[in-house]
Amino acid sequence: MKISAPRKTRCQHCPLKKMEVFRVVAASEMEFIESFKNGELSADTGATILAEGTSGPHMFTVLSGWAFRYKTLADGRRQILNFVLPGDFLGLQSSMMSEMQHSVEALTPMVLCVFPRNKLWNLYSSHPSLAFDLTWLASRSERLLDENLLSVGRRSASERAAFVLFDIFVRCRQLGLTNGNRVPFPFTQQHLADSLGMSLVHTNKTLQKLIARRLFKWKNGMFELLDEKRMMDEANIESVPPALRPLI
């Protein structure tokens, strides 16, 4: 991985700004974000973006690509906490807790906007609206973890799988990554199993049952949602209009 300089993407020309899911950034905020950003990071598939137990000097916004957050036990068993998509903010935890409590690994080639952690206080002191945005992003991460805990603790195997796949699909749709009801998923069944807290064999059997019921197709990395209403019913979730998200 390398941090490139000068930056390749000016903040005012960020392609993510065009997406309706992100709120409009005020001119003064945009000027500050432009000065806050100090480069871009290019990461290959499999690269470690952040490592548990370390305290890196940078925070990141994902400009393009996929990743996943995870924790591991001493014997190597892994729990994927959630999947990371464009617009997500990474590294705030090490700024608040002195070191990362989880790791982040790239699922695809990625480009990330880089922000120096030692200038974070400037954001809080000079732009309280952006500080609120960071709080919003932290709360959103907490909500995602709440849902994952509910899935692991109370949802059945089929409900877990349907929930995770549908949630990722909806996030992709909001970001304009879907083509109709189809979207490429770069993760494997092993990644999905590690996010569900299930064995690979159990995960495969669960997926085959859902596919046989024609809720979705998933072949050669391409996911296709066939019946949104039944998928939501299977996941035991209700439709909630997406809230406008901040983008830093």
Detailed description of the structure:
The protein is α+β, with helices and mostly antiparallel strands and 248 residues long. The chain has 2 domains: 136 residues, Sandwich (Jelly Rolls), CATH 2.60.120.10; 81 residues, Winged helix-like DNA-binding domain superfamily/Winged helix DNA-binding domain (Arc Repressor Mutant, subunit A), CATH 1.10.10.10. The protein is built from 8 helices and 12 strands. A 5-stranded antiparallel beta sheet has the order 1-2-9-4-7. A hairpin with a 2-residue loop joins strand 11 and strand 12. It starts with a strand and ends in a 13-residue tail after the last helix. 30% of the residues are buried. The model has no long low-confidence stretch (mean pLDDT 87).
Write out key terms for the chains shown.
Jelly Rolls; 248 residues; 39% helix; 22% strand; Arc Repressor Mutant, subunit A; 4-stranded antiparallel sheet; 5-stranded antiparallel sheet; 2 domains; 12 strands; 8 helices; alpha+beta
Topology diagram in text:
Elements: E1 2-4, H1 27-36, E2 39-43, E3 48-50, E4 58-64, E5 67-72, E6 78-84, E7 89-90, H2 92-97, E8 103-106, E9 110-116, H3 120-126, H4 128-153, H5 157-174, E10 182-184, H6 189-196, H7 200-212, E11 216-219, E12 222-225, H8 228-235
Antiparallel strand pairs: 1-2, 2-9, 3-8, 4-7, 4-9, 5-6, 5-8, 10-12, 11-12
